[in-house]
Amino acid sequence: MDVTGGNGQPQPDENHPADHPPAPPTPNPEHDPDHASERDQGHPDEPGPDSTGHEHRSLAHAGIARTDPPPERPKEPGGGILMGRPFGVPVYVAPSWFLVAALITWVFGGQLDRVLPELGALRYLVSLFFAVAFYASVLVHELAHTIAALRFKLPVRRIQLQFFGGVSEIEKEAETPGREFVLAFVGPLLSLVLAGLFYLALKPVEPGTVPGVLLAGLMISNLIVAIFNLLPGLPLDGGRMLRAVVWKITGRPMTGTVAAAWVGRALAVSVLIGLPLLNQSGTLGGDRDVSGMDTVTDALLAAILAAIIWTGAGNSLRMARLREHLPDLRARTLTRRAVPVQSDTPLSEGLRRANAAGARALVVVDADGTPLSLVREAAIVGIPEHRRPWVPVSELAQDLTDGMRVSAELSGEELLDTLRATPATEYLVVENTGEIYGVLSAADVERAFVKAMARPS
Fold first, then answer.
1. Residue 9 CB burial class (10 angstroms; 0-12, 13-18, ≥19)
2. Are the C-beta atoms of residues 168 and 196 closer than 8 Å to each other?
3. Of 101, 190, 207, 330, which is the most exposed, with the fewest CB atoms less than 10 Å away?
């Protein structure tokens, strides 16, 4: 997240399994009457872990299938009010923007009252125009990141204008430190260019007029945005530039992220302590009388900025660890064994075949063996055992779509992107030849993701 107007840093996706997926509890057969009756019927013992290290329990005994429905996939957030789609990228204004716009209007209006007292109440209309123009400058800053990302063939999910600036949500990381540096630098560069343009536009304008005050305010604000974003700490653009430099020197992007994130945390502490002191000394705003309310306001602003920078640095570390561990997620190792069954096969018979084969999934096929649908684990939960001989598996199956067919060779970010493109609870995993390899559960991917993230870097 950018604090004052630009950051092309990759953002976590809300549909990503990192959103604290639940780990369903394993039922205890000793306290489950359904399990007890199955034991009385002489079901085979559950096989042990397979060669991939995954426990092969019977389908009827699976924790998700017996007790818990798969976790709901989070909905895509709107991101606020959609303002347009420049270069095909949606631009949203978050609700928090209206709060900061009101704050800017009030503060800038007070300054106008001292410079142009003859405006009267119109000063707030001028101040509102300034707030909108300032955020238009922030949007230009973000569009610089977006254009650079698109130039490097990096997908941009959206641009969002929010409380302390804006953010460009770039979904993938730059492939080289050079591209990372350019991607980060173009935002502050455009803010510096805007500050220069407003300075040139200010030259022929008479001082002490409304245009003069507006142009001076936009020049100074863009200059502050550029300088602040060039500070060498994540999540600011300067932090990403530092990360690129360390990455280039060490050859390791993770080392660059760690260095820039800790510099960002040090910067957060400096802002928390230093900003109120600078304001009280008049360094940032000239000589002024400091009241108790001014002191409280300065401290509150510093605390908010410091918290945003500290949190952004921590998020950068987590995102780096996420990308470091993504290769551990492989469709082939996470896939459950599956047995093919005809559509009219009774559920009890399907479960018997699955248990005998040590499988945990059922795939409905036609007479030629072509997969048609997947039996949903959640649907098995609602079928009492005494009814299973009379329920065909086709009644519990979900038809396969193209997006639900996943290659066994997928792994890492490519696997997650494929699953996000077609939300479902189960996916058919196939070999390159089209042969059925098994069934991949979204819940299994989520749990594996959590385990990977828990391991130290």
1. buried
2. no
3. 207
Which pLDDT score, from 0 to 100, does residue 292 have?
57
3-state SS track over the chain: CCCCCCCCCECCCCCCCCCCCCCCCCCCHHHCHHHHHHHHCCCCCCCCCCCCCCCCCCHHHCHHHHCCCCCCCCCCCCCCEEEECHHHCCEEECHHHHHHHHHHHHHHHHHHHHHCHHHCCHHHHHHHHHHHHHHHHHHHHHHHHHHHHHHCCCCEEEEEEECCEEEEEECCCCCCHHHHHHHHHHHHHHHHHHHHHHHHHHCCCCCCCHHHHHHHHHHHHHHHHHHHHCCCCCCCHHHHHHHHHHHHHHCCHHHHHHHHHHHHHHHHHHHHHHHHHHHHHCCCCCCCCCCHHHHHHHHHHHHHHHHHHHHHHHHHHHHHHHHHHHHHCEHHHHCECEEEEECCCEHHHHHHHHHHHCCCEEEEECCCCCEEEEECHHHHHCCCHHHHHHCEHHHHEEECCHHHEEECCCEHHHHHHHHHHCCCCEEEEECCCCCEEEEEEHHHHHHHHHHHHHCCC
In this structure, which amino acid lies at residue 290? Answer: V
pLDDT at res. 280: 74
Nearest Cα to Cα of residue 45 among 381, 348, 356, 385 = 356
- Residue 146's nearest CA partner among 157, 136, 131 is 157
Residue 267 token pair: 């910067």
Give tens-digit pLDDT for 397-438. Answer: 999 988 899 999 998 878 888 888 888 999 999 998 888 999
* pTM reported for the whole predicted model: 0.65
154: Cα within 13 Å, side-chain hemisphere? 23
| 10-residue mean pLDDT series, the chain (457 residues) | 45 38 34 36 36 37 35 51 93 90 87 85 91 94 96 94 86 92 96 97 90 93 94 94 96 92 93 82 55 68 87 85 79 93 94 92 92 90 90 92 91 86 91 91 88 70
- Dihedral sign of CA atoms 140, 145, 150, 154 in order: negative
The rounded distance, in Å, linking the Cα atoms of 192 and 273 is 27
